[in-house]
Write a structure and sequence with these properties.
Layout (H helix, E strand, L loop, with lengths): L14 H7 L9 H8 L9 H5 L6 H9 L3 H11 L3 H7 L22 H15 L14 E5 L3 H12 L3 E6 L7 H4 L10 H10 L4 E5 L9 H7 L2 E4 L5 E2 L12 E3 H10 L11 E5 L3 H12 L4 E5 L11 H9 L3 E3 L2 E7 L6 E10 L2 E12 L2 E4 L3 E2 L10 E2 L2 E2 L12 E3 L11 H19 L4
Parallel strand pairs: 1-2, 1-4, 2-3, 4-17, 6-13, 7-8, 7-13, 8-9
Antiparallel strand pairs: 5-14, 10-11, 11-12, 15-16
Helix pairs in contact: 2-4, 4-5, 4-7, 5-7, 6-7, 8-15, 12-13, 13-14
């Protein structure tokens, strides 16, 4: 769903102001800063930060390598576990993963800045390395298909290529990267980093990408299975949940993901449409990204409304603090019941809510919030075209311990399956593990 200029108005800030607002949220560490920060690590035995990382990066080792000025070795330690370690260093919720598990928290101290150190090592290698840091195994002659050039698909393709297989990625959009390219806030992925990282991943060799090819429209699972030795589905969640309230179709009501994509892809963000009074509905990190970016584009008032309390929000405490620091008002215990306006949105009506015996219920009290733009961020869903023959586990694809779906030779990973949180780092782990499982089954290893 593309944004249309007629849906809302913009021009509240100058181009220069907006460029400043969308500069890198966390400027990278310099070498001296990184070494000082690395000195703070206690290099724990059975380090809890490793356990907290879905990709099990050996964090104490890579930090020690920074401390000894071995940046190449540090980056290779990271990338061996997480080939998208650059994006994860920028956008991973480290505050609830590795940094949240840092033992310094228990001492009342700030945790080691693991994400910043990870970014420093990986981006230094990407900028300075002559060639890819890993070498492919001899060719096996096996050909794998990957559907989706997002984090799971890229991680699968890279690890499969390392193991000696040839991989073709089929991507529906014109650019690779998945949510790293289209779904993360622009200030988290400044300087076109997602595309630089994809180029780095492809540098291993043995991987090609075909664009504008959608499963269920331009190709079928039957075709892919006939033409390849294995198929991996890294589909992500391409559909957006509906509010299911009257007025949802009014002009000015936009999917938050479409809004974020428009911000990411705009060559000149000062030309983007944004409302003066923006209401964001949702409680996850996508809602926060949409709300903060609306504010940074020049919206006068941005209200993020969530139907439950702050403790139930999917957004991390750090993300919630970021929203408030940017002037976003967070309204809790508010469930949307109607979007109102004459042709275009003018207000959103909410019913206040409460938890009774663990169940959410309305109180009957109604509150109207003025809005000329509404961004829906209430979750994404798997789009079924092309995968109707596969078994589902709830609203996601069912897979076995080897990531194989109900159709032999077809595997899946990332947000389209239920292995953990819908995060880039989890998708990378799924792709990596699935590649090893496919290699073991196809090559009959072990």
């Amino acid at each position: 769903m593309a944004l249309r200029p007629a849906e809302s108005v913009g021009g509240f800030l100058t181009r220069e102001q907006i460029e400043r607002n969308f500069a890198d949220l966390h400027p990278p560490l310099g070498c001296a800063q990184a070494e000082i920060e690395a000195e703070r690590c206690l290099y724990c035995y059975d380090a809890p930060c490793i356990v907290a990382c879905p990709t099990s990066i050996d964090i104490p080792t890579f930090i020690r390598q920074i401390r000894t000025q071995n940046l190449q070795g540090s980056a290779e330690t990271i990338l061996d576990s997480n080939i998208l370690g650059g994006t994860c260093g920028r956008a991973c919720p480290t505050e609830v993963l590795c940094e949240g598990a840092c033992v310094l928290n228990a001492r009342g101290e700030e945790p080691v800045k693991i994400g910043a150190l990870q970014r420093h090592a990986v981006e230094t290698l990407m900028a300075e390395a002559n060639g890819h840091p890993f070498t492919r195994a001899p060719s096996t002659g096996k050909r794998f298909a990957v559907v989706g050039a997002g984090p799971a698909g890229l991680a699968f393709a890279h690890r499969a290529a390392l193991l000696g297989h040839l991989v073709t990625i089929y991507e529906a959009k014109p650019k690779p990267g998945g949510l790293n390219e289209y779904g993360l806030a622009a200030y988290k992925m400044a300087e076109d980093f997602a595309q630089k990282e994809v180029e780095f991943v492809l540098g291993v060799g043995g991987i090609s990408i075909e664009y504008g090819v959608a499963l269920g429209h331009d190709m079928s699972l039957e075709q892919l299975r006939a033409d390849h030795d294995a198929v991996f589905l890294g589909l992500g969640l391409g559909g957006v949940r509906r509010l299911g309230v009257p007025g949802e179709e009014l002009r000015g009501v936009v999917d938050a993901i479409a809004f974020i994509e428009a911000v990411r892809q705009a060559a000149d963000k000062s030309t983007l449409p944004v409302g003066r009074e923006v209401v964001v509905i949702g409680g996850g990190n996508t809602a926060i990204d949409a709300a903060v970016q609306a504010k940074r584009l020049g919206a006068r008032n941005v209200t993020l409304a969530y139907r439950r309390g702050e403790a139930q929000m999917g957004a991390t405490e750090w993300e919630r603090d970021l929203a408030r620091l940017n002037g976003v008002a967070i309204r809790l215990w508010a469930a949307p019941v109607a979007v109102e306006g004459d042709g275009r949105v003018e207000r959103v009506v909410f019913e206040t809510t409460e938890l009774v015996d663990g169940k959410l219920r309305g109180t009957g009290e109604m509150v109207a919030i003025p809005a000329d733009m509404v961004l829906k961020a209430i979750g994404q869903v798997l789009i079924p075209p092309g995968i109707e023959a596969l078994a589902f586990n709830g609203d996601k694809l069912a897979v076995d311990a080897d990531y194989q779906t109900s159709l032999p030779g077809v595997f899946a990973g990332g947000d389209c399956i239920a292995t953990g949180e819908d995060l880039t780092v989890q998708a990378v782990e799924d792709g990596k593990r699935a590649a090893h499982a496919v290699d073991r089954l196809i090559m009959k290893r072990g």
